[in-house]
Design goal:
This protein is α+β, with helices and mostly antiparallel strands. The protein has three domains: 1-25 and 311-354, no CATH class; 42-217 and 266-298, no CATH class; 220-261, no CATH class. Helices cover 30% and strands 20% of the residues. The chain contains eight helices and 14 strands. The protein has helices at 26-37, 55-61, 65-85, 140-160, 176-188, 202-212, 253-261, 283-293; strands spanning 2-4, 10-11, 46-52, 95-103, 109-118, 120-122, 129-131, 193-195, 223-227, 230-236, 246-251, 272-276, 319-323, 330-333. It has a five-stranded antiparallel beta sheet, with helices on both faces. Strands 2-1-14-13 form a four-stranded antiparallel beta sheet, with no helix packed on it. The longest helix has 21 residues, at 65-85. The radius of gyration is 24 Å and the shape is globular. It starts with a strand and ends in a 21-residue tail after the last strand. Residues 95-282 form the Transposase IS801/IS1294 domain.
Length: 354
């Protein structure tokens, strides 16, 4: 049970199911993950690159999530690392964090991966930091062509190895000749790779990651109604602009659940991965070297005197990270009850001070 010290609002935070696909339970996990990532930020530009799979490949991903999603993340990272390491483009070893998303705003199946990339990297000999041109990371067309070629090569190898399953209208793709013919048009199609403008400093990177790393297909805040008409929620139509972009959609309960369950990942599939300088095996050593070359031994996000950092507390009455829905002030835990325990009657809100 939580209470606001400012307005006296009281609410109950129910037990978490701790499932990584739950819209409610991932808030705390996201905050913990972000706290661990703060120390990884460097005082350089960060870029946001998105790799998207064409619709035909997204269709066969329904029955091959582990293989197709794994290839999407792996090949996207390899593409960025390869082009960045090419002396014709950057000639450096960069670091990146890849986050898998499988949904569109209306919970349709739309597999893509968001990559947060350092705007530069270590030289091959590790003796200097190589920065990219201000405001420009890598050529999108070059990234798109290499991503397409490598992904189709890996997908063809997976089919030959028998790692892909095909059902229904795609059952004929189990034959190598049919699969090769199906891949042919995709080799000529332009694949979507989108590079956004650089983030406005490390703070903006954290703000972005806090919204995207632990998201699921829909959040509770987008749910409008659950009544005889169905389940109504808000969604964003990217084909329009302005105030007409935000719309409402009502689906029958079974269709709503079908769309949501499309995005449940196989057990053990990691949807947040780190590559290059940020790879777990050598992340600490690489970041120390990068900071030494950038003459920034202290992370700018954490650059406050140690004496000013709040000490950790195990007191259950300490302030939580959750804001009050009424006034925005911090909520404080005033009571905790265990499974099967009946909570006390909700206390009356505090009266306003004269």
């Amino acid at each position: 049970m939580e209470q606001c010290d400012a307005c006296g609002h009281i609410q109950i935070a129910y037990n978490s199911c701790r499932n990584r696909h739950c819209p409610k339970c991932q808030g705390a996990a996201a905050q913990q993950w972000l706290a661990a990532r703060e120390a990884d930020l460097l005082p350089v530009e960060y870029y946001h690159v998105v790799f998207t799979l064409p619709a035909p490949i997204a269709d066969i991903a329904y029955d091959n999530k582990r293989v197709v999603y794994g290839l999407l993340m792996q090949v996207a990272a390899e593409t960025l690392l390869s082009i960045a390491a090419d002396p014709k483009h950057l000639g450096a070893r960069i670091g990146l964090t890849a986050v898998l998303h499988t949904w569109g705003s209306a919970m349709t199946h739309h597999p893509h991966v968001h990559c947060i990339v350092t705007g530069g990297g270590l030289s091959p000999d590790g003796e200097r930091w190589v920065a990219c041109r201000p405001g420009f990371f890598l050529p999108v067309r070059v990234l798109s062509r290499l991503f397409r070629r490598r992904f189709l090569e890996q997908l063809g190898a997976a089919q030959q190895a028998g790692d892909l399953a095909f059902f229904g209208e795609h059952a004929h793709l189990a034959a190598p000749e049919a699969f090769a013919a199906w891949l042919a048009p995709l080799r000529r199609q332009e694949w979507v790779v989108y590079a956004k403008a650089p983030f406005a400093g490390p703070e903006a990177v954290l703000a972005y990651l806090s919204r995207y790393t632990h998201r699921v297909a829909i959040s509770n805040t987008r749910l409008i109604a659950d009544d005889a008409q169905g389940i109504t929620f808000t969604w964003k139509d990217y084909r329009t602009s302005g105030r007409h972009r935000h719309k409402r959609m009502t689906l029958a309960p079974e269709e709503f659940m079908r769309r949501f369950l499309l995005h449940v990942l196989p057990c053990g599939l990691h949807r947040i991965r780190h590559y290059g300088l940020l790879a777990n095996t050598a992340r600490v050593r690489n970041l120390e070297r990068a900071r030494a070359l950038l003459t920034a031994p202290v992370n700018p996000i954490l650059a406050i005197p140690v004496a000013m950092e709040p000490a950790a507390s195990s007191d259950p009455s300490t302030t939580t990270a959750r804001p009050c829905p009424c006034c925005g002030a911090p909520l404080r835990i005033i009571e905790t009850f265990m499974r099967g325990q009946v909570p006390r009657a909700v206390p009356s809100p505090r009266s306003a001070s004269p």
